[in-house]
Structures are given as structure tokens and as C-alpha cells.
Amino acid sequence: MDSIIITGNGPLSGRIPISGAKNTCLKLMTAALLADEPLTLTNVPRLSDITTLRALLESLGCEVALLREGRVMVLSARQITSHRADYQIVRKLRASFNVLGPLLARTGEAIVSLPGGCAIGARRVDLHLMALERLGATITLEQGYVHARAAHGLSGAMIEFPLVSVGATENALMAATLAKGTTVIRNAAREPDTVDLAKCLGAMGAQIEGAGSAEITVHGVARLHGTTHEVIPDRIELGTFMIAPAIAGGEVELMGGKRALLEAFCQHLEEAGVEIAETHNSLRVRRRGNRVRAVDVTTAPFPGFPTDLQAQFMALMCTAEGTSVMEETIFENRFMHAPELIRMGARIDVRGGTATVTGVPRLTGAPVMATDLRASVSLIMAGLAAEGETCVARVYHLDRGYEQIEQKLLAVGARIERVKGGVAGTSRFPR
Ligand code: UD1
Description:
Blueprint: E1 3-7, E2 12-17, H1 22-31, E3 39-42, H2 48-59, E4 63-67, E5 72-76, E6 84-85, H3 87-90, H4 100-107, E7 109-113, H5 126-134, E8 138-142, E9 145-149, E10 158-160, H6 166-177, E11 182-186, H7 192-203, E12 207-209, E13 215-219, E14 227-230, H8 235-248, E15 250-255, H9 263-271, E16 274-278, E17 282-287, E18 297-298, H10 310-317, E19 323-327, H11 338-343, E20 347-351, E21 354-358, E22 363-364, E23 367-369, H12 373-385, E24 386-387, E25 389-393, H13 396-401, H14 405-410, E26 415-419
Parallel strand pairs: 2-15, 3-14, 6-7, 10-11, 18-19, 22-24, 23-25
Antiparallel strand pairs: 1-25, 1-26, 3-5, 4-5, 7-9, 8-9, 11-13, 12-13, 15-17, 16-17, 19-21, 20-21
Helix pairs in contact: 1-2, 1-7, 4-6, 5-6, 6-7, 8-10, 8-12, 10-12
The structure holds uridine-diphosphate-N-acetylglucosamine.
């Protein structure tokens, strides 16, 4: 298994291009199942999660072609040849559960494996199922698979979620586009990913109002058609690379970055002493002074502080002046980076969903290992500010969600390299 070695190397300087959003692109890909005409996506990120979902869609009969070095994807679901999303793929990528709504709405039947738990928590799917039942589906669970049936099609309904779920909102939204009559989704996710999905569905002929607010109304139509849609920039990749100059010092310009994608996160960074300037097509980020200040964080659904940036912000707080209290409210087991950061000299006390982080002047490099995507990248961020060499094992997590991370960080002056087979202590950089 490959490892990544980072050698803390002082201030960063330069530009990083932000790729298309992984989570948005995954949902847009599943939307292709709703139409019998091709959906063309541009600004597609080249990531292993995208390849995994592509394989699943192909197994359902969707033809997928990549053009322009993988940046453009054409998905054609003219004929659905299978209703079954297999466990072997769904367990690798939870977002593949989002084929359930489109497949059911288009064909009246879907058999999708339950995804199972994952490193950051149980991640239930009850709200996805509740929403589809409200739309008239009959749902049974058989041998680890969800069987959803609606032989006479789905019917519009009122769906009120007891808590905000991005995936369940998106499954409900996609299914409702082809339901008979009007659906109202209350307590809907307001994430930019959901808004972009609604925009793409609108361009495919769906009638949707209120995306981006807590109440979405969908007037069902008989069929959707093809379109071309550009994937929005990845706000989690953007936020991650905003941490880089904040933790290592220097100034980095994030090309394609937009503040509106991450307002709450930007405010926290500014409170910590980081300057953020927005241009028409980028965000420039610069740390004031030698160390950031401690800032408290509570994760929340959009427009709150994103749970997907909690680990990276914790890495930053490890080097801050003062003590910060970080509360994770979305997932129950999302502090698994903390013990690894502690191995790098951080002072973190985790009690349930709260982590208290007391900043230290300097972290020290160490061999570390991560259990999920955002935890892995938080260790890379910590490594940028650590004295000596940090070797991050299990980098396949990173390849799921960060395109060319070494190249992007090398371009701003970081010392980072991938080592095949994960042998530590083989850095080509002079120590
Ligand atoms: C999506 C993102 C993920 C992000 C998360 C929260 C994708 C591919 N992934 O995940 O990166 O961290 O939003 O912003 O878009 N829940 C239930 N029952 C359900 C569904 C969810 O109890 O049926 C709970 C979850 O366990 C969790 C909370 O709701 O505690 C939020 O989860 P949700 O918004 O659904 O996350 P995902 O859509 O899986």
C-alpha cells in the first residue's frame, strides 16, 4: 500500500486549481438514470470514487464515456438492463445508495444493497426509505438488500425529515421529479451539492422550486431529457487547501474558489487570524502572524460549519495559540484523526462528540495512519506544519476524494511525495 511523506518546510506560495466537486458529481451521475437521453457532465474530478460509481451505473445498463482526459463524462441510460446495485460496489461507496430513488422512479423497481456502517459512524438509511415510502413505494429488506417497488409509478407527497440528511433529500428529490403530482420536501438539505443537483435536474426538464431553502417543491413530470451540466467547484477540497497556508504560513491562491460555498468556514478562519480575499475567480488566503488563534467549532448542516472540514480545522487548531472546543454534531465517530494527531505532539482531549484542543507551538513528524478520507488529509495538513517527516499510510482514502494532491501541494512549495509500498524514511528531499 502506498504512503505519502511530507516534510514540514515553512511558508507556502503559489496557486492551486480546485477540481469539480466529488459529492456533487456523484449525485449528478446517478441523475442520469432518470432520463433516456444522455447527460453530459463537465468539470468532472478524476477520483476513484467516481470510477467506482461509474462501474455501478454500467452494471445497471448505463453507458458511460469519458472525454477530454476524463474531464467530461457522457452518461446514457437509454435502457436500464438491471435493477440491482450489488453489495460489492455499494459497500465501497455509500453514495451509490443514491441510485435507489432514480432507478425506482424510472423503472418502478430497484434492488439496492444496504451500504453497512463505515469508519465515521452507523450512517443509517431510514430517512431515504421513509421518503420513498411517502412517495408510494413498497419497501422490503431481503438478505441485506432494499427492494423498492412502485409498479404504477410514484405519487407526489409531503415528506418531512426529522433531521437534515443530504443523501435522503437528494434521493427524494430525484424520485419526486418523475412522480405524479406535487411533492413538498420539508427540512431539506441546503448544501450547494443539492442545489447544483436541482439545477441540473431543472435543465433536464424537472420542475423544482426552493432548492437551497429548507423547503423544496417538485412538480412531477412524465419524462426528463438530456442536458449538459458543469459540476461546481469542490468546496471541501477548497476548504482543505485554505488550511494549508493557515497552518504552514505563506499565501496561496485557490483558483475557482468561491466564498459563498464556505461562508461559515471562512468566518472561522478569519477569526483565527487568516486573511481571505476573493477575486472574480479565486480566493487568496494568507496567515497573519506566526500562529493562528484558537477558535471554537460546532459542525452543522449547510450553511453551518461542514463536518467534512472538521478534521482539517482540528489539525490547524493543534498549532493555534489557546484552547479550542470542537463539537461534532453530524457523525458519531468522527474524531479518529485525534489519536494520530496526538502522535505528532498535539494536545487533544476527546469526550464523546467534543474534542478540546490546546495548541502547541510546533508539531513533530511521525508515522501516522488514517481511517477515512478527511482524516487522512488532516494528517497531511498537520505534516505541512510539523518538524521533520510525517509518513501517512493508507493513502487510498485520499485518492477517493483528492485529485493529484501531491502535485497540487508541490506546486505551492510543499515537500510531499508518494512512496510505493509505503516504506518510511525514503524521502528524496534532503533532511
Ligand atoms: C453527505 C456527504 C458527506 C457529508 C455528509 C454531511 C456525499 C456523498 N456525502 O453524506 O461527505 O459528510 O453529507 O454533510 O454527499 N442519517 C440518518 N438516517 C438517514 C440518513 C442520514 O439518521 O437515513 C443521519 C446520518 O447518520 C448522519 C446525519 O443523518 O448522522 C447526516 O447524514 P447525511 O446528511 O445523510 O450524510 P450523507 O448524505 O451520507
